[in-house]
Amino acid sequence: MGREIVIGLHFYQPPREAVHPLLSKISTDPEGKNWTEIIDHQCYEPLAAEGVLEKVTFDIYQSLLIQLEKISPETAAIYKKSMMENGVGESFIHPILPDLSKVDKEIIISAGVNRFKEITGQNPKIFWPPETAIDTETLEVLSENGYEGFVCAPEQIIQQDGGNSDNRPTMIGLPNGKRIVAYPFDRTISSLLAFDPKQNADVFTQNYLRPKRDSIASNQVIIAWTDAETFGHHYKNGDKFLDYFLDSSLPSIGLYPTSINKLNFTDKTFSCGKIRERSAWSCPHGNLIRWSGSCDCGWGEDTSWKQPFSQSMDFLNAEVSKIIQKELGQRYWEFTANKFYENYAHPETVNNPQKALISAKISSLIAKTSCATFFSSPEVSGKINLLYAYQSLLYLKDAGLETVSNDLGKNFFEKLSKIIYPNSEETALTTLQDMLEA
Ligand SMILES: [Zn+2]
């Protein structure tokens, strides 16, 4: 008898350029390449054209989808159509959620839900957190936004019976009285899908999937999830490997790909457990230190720049919140959540101070994008954060708050001047200045 399997793909790119008209000519890539466009040709387009999206489950971050809508509207349309059955929700942009205030969590989680609904006509059921980083507050906000579950790594879940969490959907009780289901992916299969050479899908299936299928309980569904860019970008022809794997190799051993949205569990199938607070799939050191401090996930490099970098962006984002709250009142977060797509996709703010204020807040949130401090050097990805931080200050000026923007800018630049980049003469401030002068 056949069994179900969920193959999940995480589609993500950070914004490559700022959107403010005064900044839109600046490239953050050292060679001036548009990587999203390159990866689109290698991966996003072929996966869509081969029909892979109909067989997998996927999350696609809006920060990527908005770029795809410009690069290849036909491809973007296939993604949007497939989201209806096979899409899971996301937070529009990609910061470490537990490092944000509750209000900021509300803004981007509901912005993601709003856009998902506009595209598909329905609320997303399951959520893919950036870097699968979670804390209880994030799960509460998810549950209040109608989410029934989220995907994470098995080591982020502590089972009541002490057992391994691979593939075991786990009911998590929350302080707000609601419940949410954790869907831990299979660590072994997910890693192999990411890193094993993509040569022969039948051999891959025989070597890894067959023993996995035989080793787990018959009512368990294998859930594997990995970066979509693996297929076609990291591995040439990986898209064809995946297509054949889904169509032929898996069914040949009785595993049938299905959408995570279609899994039908009864309450009895769930085990109960709790989460490891402030954990993620890609830093085992605890407390999400990879993104805001120093740990050897940076491959032994000097990561002392991370803490002041992360704190500077927190400072700017918190100050922008105070300013916008003063101007628009307590409900500023709702305006921001509701206008997130509109302002992001259509950034012009001529003669519209309220739109400029909301764009300032969106920009200071994007300045918290996690890619900068994921890597051990801030030189490439960090530029995006610096540019969006600067864009936030520009939008405050567009809102008529010239002095406020100048005062905040002075404090912020002072902080940037103290962030010394590793193995370099540069600081965060000189890096920003070089970009603006180029
Ligand atoms: Zn680490």
Explain this structure to me?
The protein has helices at 35-49, 62-71, 73-86, 102-120, 136-144, 187-195, 201-215, 238-252, 306-328, 332-345, 353-366, 371-374, 382-398, 402-417, 428-437; strands at 3-11, 57-60, 126-127, 149-152, 157-159, 170-173, 179-184, 222-227, 255-257, 271-275. The chain has 438 residues and is α/β, with parallel strands linked by helices. The chain folds into 2 domains: 3-275, 7-stranded beta/alpha barrel; 293-437, no CATH class. Helix 5 (136-144) links the parallel strand 3 (126-127) and strand 4. Helix 9 (306-328) packs antiparallel against helix 14 (402-417) and helix 13 crosses helix 15. The longest helix is centred in the last third of the chain and has 23 residues, at 306-328. It starts with a strand and ends with a helix. Zinc ion binds next to loops.
Globally, the shape reads globular
How would you spell out the order of helices and strands? EHEHHHEHEEEEHHEHEEHHHHHHH
CATH topology of the largest domain: 7-stranded beta/alpha barrel
Query: What oligomeric arrangement do these chains adopt?
Result: single chain
Terminus-to-terminus distance: 63 Å
Question: Low-confidence spans: pLDDT under 50, at least 5 residues?
Answer: none
Cα-based radius of gyration, to the nearest Å:
22 Å
CATH architecture assignment of the largest domain: Alpha-Beta Barrel
E-strand count? 10
User: Which secondary-structure class do the elements indicate?
Assistant: alpha/beta
Number of helices: 15
Q: How many domains is the backbone divided into?
A: 2
Strands ordered across the widest β-sheet:
3-4-7-6-10-5
Beta fraction: 5-15%
Largest sheet: 6 strands, mixed
